[in-house]
Amino acid sequence: MTDAPAPTSAAPGTREVLTWSTFGDAVRDLATTIAGDGFRPAVVLGIARGGLPLAAGLAYALDVKETATINVEFYTGVDSRLPEPVVLAPSVDLAELAGRDVLVVDDVADTGRTLGVVVAMCAEAGVRARSVVVYRKPTTTREPDWAWRGTDRWIEFPWSAQGPVPGVASA
After folding, report:
1. CB 26 within 8 A of CB 53
2. Residues 5-43: pLDDT tens digits?
3. Could you tell me which of 17, 26, 63, 151 has the fewest CB atoms within 10 Å of its CB?
4. Beta strand segments in the chain, E
């Protein structure tokens, strides 16, 4: 795993804010580290929704043409989550990736349960999976192979910080 800096300790209510510019730096840093470690994935598998921006960035930076997504719902709001991660349709057929090197990508390893579910599903399908996140929290039970930073704060990602546009009803 990347030597992520020690988690920042924050007063209640403070947040870790990731900007688009800093996100670009994170993508490049992670891709450089992954390539430097000698891992050459055949496929980048993004965990929707939060992992998709990082998956796209890493696919370009690592020159991986094959990408796939898996939809997993766990968080329903700030510090609000379902009892267990739930895989939603549509989803990649992991059997098609058997025997291949796959980079599983998510935005954060908080509890580690979402990452754990996807990596376990990959292993069951015969996929050689390694994982990467932008942030790793000290509470994770599933360590990613690579993480850009560590934090114990709630994270505001640039793609979700503002929420849906007005007039969009929640499904």
Report:
1. no
2. 444 444 445 899 999 999 999 999 999 999 999 999 999
3. 63
4. 15-17, 43-48, 66-77, 80-91, 101-109, 128-136, 146-150, 154-156
In this structure, is residue 110 part of a structural domain? yes
18/25 Cα distance (integer angstroms)? 11
3-state secondary structure of 165: coil
pTM of this prediction?
0.85
- Tokens 């000290």 identify what position? 138
The domain spanning residue 136 has which CATH number?
A: 3.40.50.2020
- 8 Å CB contact between 66 and 100: no
Task: Provide the domain count of the chain.
Answer: 1
Rounded-to-10 torsion of CA 138, 2, 78, 86: -100
